[in-house]
Amino acid sequence: MIGRRRLPAPAERYAAATLDGPLLEVTDLRTHFRTDRGVVRAVDGVSFSLEQGRTLGIVGESGSGKTVLSRSIMGLLPKHNVIRQGSVRFEGRELIDAPVDELRDLWGAQMAMVFQDPMTSLNPVMRIGNQITESLLHHLDISKEFARETAVALLRSVGIPEPERRLRQYPHELSGGMRQRVMIAIAIACGPRLLFADEPTTALDVTVQAQILDLLQQQQRERYMAMILVTHDLGVVAGRTDHIAVMYAGQIVEKAPTRTLFTAMKMPYTEALIRSIPKLTDPSHTRLRTIGGRPPNLIAPPKGCRFSPRCPYVQDRCREEEPPLRPAAEPGHEFRCWFPVGTPEGAEALERNRARAGSVRARVAADGPGPEVR
Predict the structure, then answer these.
(1) pTM of the predicted model, to two decimals?
(2) Which of 59, 61, 281, 317 counts the highest number of beta carbons within 10 A?
(3) Which residues pair with 208 in a beta bridge?
């Protein structure tokens, strides 16, 4: 028994377990769900790697496959009607076909997740203290007394006042921001090397959102964790990630170092996401920019580029040929587009579409909208 003996500091443990290569390697990961309507291609050929101590942002609209990707990596999927293929290597160990018992030893101890909605993730009839110490007692050979002291220290480290009293409370007695802090405390309790944060600021007000994101960033740096931050808001990941992967319809359509993505984006979908962010410099009552149309049906995605029905740069080739993920001039930058933003081909494609739209509007204005449909 460790008893009251001090546990090694996270930085010490990580320094003793450094890797020669990436901490996480995902190769051609595919996660499909069988339904009555057909097979849903929720994640369709995703590849990336993540080094220890680095932060990756995964960005996209609702339904783009962000959350399913995170759960696929951890193995948190339904037991039935799921097809999972490809490769997920964590610390060099393949996880795709790993048994549940082996994954259970990894969950919490080596990789953990801060879920989107703490009210539905926390057990409503279990005290906060028991929910934190449960993971500690499962993974570490320590006494209940030391586990309780560790839980108090964890709550204090995530900024919860009166931690001793909070241990005796239930989730419904805490505010939304405090429940999310409890979720973070549970996730980092055993010092995981990889942390997933799945929309960690959903349903929180703006000031609490900033506090939670700052807290995650602080804990990630202090513990030298790798972190995957999942969100629909590019503004959230702008100053908090090293790399960003943009997902659309189950695929990564662009990935790059964070600064490169914002200064030299190539994918029209990335440009549309950035333009949809409200700006403080805009005057009052400025109409928000939106992305026209809606995401495609993942049971029968469109032929060619999956963003083509909504893309302002779309050409005939986009509707017929699916673009590969190809490298840009900047190191580490890849994108999936035939007519990239910021290139002569992209500018010409956009002008052709504008000219075509202008001629259609002029023809409608001259001829009228056409015969009335009865």
Answers:
(1) 0.87
(2) 59
(3) none
